[in-house]
Design a protein that fits this description.
This protein is of the alpha+beta class. It contains 14 helices and 22 strands. Strand 8 (145-152) and strand 9 form a beta hairpin.
Length: 511
């Protein structure tokens, strides 16, 4: 508990607040930057994440994607930052809470966008309203928002209809764009922000090229250029790292770790992450509207064996619907591998001979996702359930996911704020309706946890929520992942993180 309390101390206006955090789509290619070219003549860093960057729009349908957040954290600023689970100032220098529904933020007066214009409270207001009113999967984080008022050029007041215990963690994902450009139809094909790097060119799912923004309020990055290169095939990505074609990559799958460790040119670092896998059932469709069918599907697979075989050092068997790194985690009893019980549950539910269904996923949607899917499918076939694999490009997968146009959905997810509300409160309420599962008792628990500003009370509420989601088998939660980084030894200042918001502004290259 002491560690949690340390991480929940908020600084601002000389007042300490207990808050809640734990260790924790389309675009155009070849667009030239219209802003001043970088005067920083530093080196160029090339990195490859395990997902392609589909969009630079943090307010759109891809706003919750790890790859979008990774890009956004280089291009845009936020009011608040999370650093090893602690809230820190970014654009906001001070904040206070006059009453339980009101927050006042004072902003830096020296922040400029990449076109040289000043960042003001009006831009923050427009960005928050864009997020709430748009197509972002993050809008549910703000369902208690009442108003955003600009009280001064560098001060704004946020009011909520009910207490919002996750205000600061939510703001860590509010990326700020210019108010006078944010609604332009083509803005996010080549956006400007106020972050340490500015966009030079962007080819969705292929490459994003950035350059240093020398007038960044936090000091110009040490790098001259930063490139995110998508290399979908894992072995090719590892080879590119070993040969020096790229300088860093993550997440490294288990079967590639030993080769990287043996290299004299690469360092390997593994840390617990906010990322985990789930296989959701569409509880709004037969046969997954029956809890016994959902439980049968879980008892039919040996998750422990799957995790050991496929993930090894890069993952741990999950024991809750959120990873153990997140605040609000509560360990549950794993489902036993019991094919006989699975068949009995299926028979009792009216499926003595099994049934046919489908599982969708996005290629590149997570480390070893195809192997995980195929292994699970092979287990289900043994109890009479025939599963058709549906592999989609990421943009189409997102559309089908949001439309509930699927039977089962396999994906990685990340508790990006380090707080259970980001995943449980965002994805499992009846209002969110992300997987067809609706439970009024769970709704009440999650709403109470979202509003509470009492750390102990929130832990108790999330313990109840963990149990309900687990016992009702809303999905199968096989593994929580470690972030395994492969970094060339001549790269200095690369700060690993359990989240996708990796700060690359202090990175340099020793040639």
């Amino acid at each position: 508990m002491v560690d949690y309390l340390k991480n929940y101390l908020m600084r601002g206006m000389g007042v300490l607040f207990l808050m809640f955090i734990a260790i924790l789509n389309g675009g155009c290619a070849g667009i030239t930057n219209e802003s001043d070219s970088s005067e920083n003549k530093g080196e160029s860093l090339i990195v490859s994440y395990n997902e392609g960057i589909n969009s630079l729009d943090p307010y759109g349908t891809s706003g919750g994607e790890e790859a979008t957040i990774l890009a956004a954290s280089q291009i845009y600023d936020t009011l608040i930052e999370l650093d090893e689970g602690e809230f820190k100032s970014s654009v906001a220098t001070e904040w206070e809470q006059p009453d339980e529904n009101t927050w006042v933020f004072k902003l830096r007066d020296d922040v400029t966008f990449h076109d040289g214009s000043s960042l003001t409270a009006t831009d923050v207001k427009a960005s928050l309203e864009k997020l709430v009113e748009g197509d972002s999967p993050l809008d549910v984080l703000w369902n208690t928002l009442d108003s955003v008022e600009v009280t001064d050029e560098h001060e704004l007041t946020i009011k909520t209809t009910r207490p919002l215990g996750t205000m600061l963690s939510n703001l860590s994902l509010l990326y700020i764009a210019p108010a006078d450009k944010i609604d332009d139809a083509d803005f996010f094909k080549h956006p400007i922000g106020s972050g340490p790097f500015q966009v030079e060119s962007f080819s969705p799912e292929q490459v994003l090229k950035l350059s240093s923004y020398d007038n960044y309020w936090g000091g110009a990055p040490k790098l001259g250029e930063l490139e995110f290169k998508n290399i979908p095939e894992t072995q090719s990505r590892m080879t590119s790292l070993l040969t020096g074609e790229i300088d860093a990559t993550w997440t490294v799958p288990n079967d590639q770790i030993s080769e990287l460790i043996e290299s004299a040119d690469v360092d390997v670092e593994s840390i617990p992450s906010y990322v985990f896998y789930f296989n959701w059932f569409n509880s709004g469709r037969e046969p997954f509207d029956d809890v016994d069918v959902r439980k049968a599907m879980w008892h039919a697979i040996d998750t422990e064996a799957i995790v050991n075989e496929l993930f090894g050092e890069s993952g741990e068997q999950a024991k809750a619907p959120i990873p153990s790194t997140a605040f609000g985690y509560s360990e549950q009893e794993p489902y036993d591998y019991d094919p006989k019980l699975a068949k009995k549950l299926l028979a009792d539910a009216g499926y003595p001979d099994g049934f046919e269904t489908s599982m969708m996923w996005s290629e590149g949607g997570g480390p070893q996702i195809r192997e995980l899917a195929e292994t699970m499918i092979s287990y289900w076939e043994k109890v009479g359930v025939k599963v058709k694999p549906i592999v989609l490009e990421r943009a189409e997968w997102i559309d089908k996911l949001n439309a509930l146009d699927w039977d089962m959905n396999l994906q990685t997810n990340a508790v990006k704020t380090g707080d259970a509300d980001y995943t449980l409160g965002r994805l499992y309420t009846s209002e969110a309706d992300r997987n067809g599962y609706k439970n009024e008792e769970l709704d009440e628990i999650l709403n109470d946890a979202k509003e509470s500003t009492d750390l102990g009370e929130r832990e108790e509420l999330y313990a109840k929520a963990n149990k309900i989601i687990w016992d009702d088998a809303v999905g199968i939660f096989p593994v929580e992942l470690n972030h395994v980084f492969g970094i060339r030894k001549n790269i200095e200042g690369f700060k690993t993180s359990p989240s996708a918001s990796i700060d690359l502004s202090d990175v340099s290259i020793d040639k």
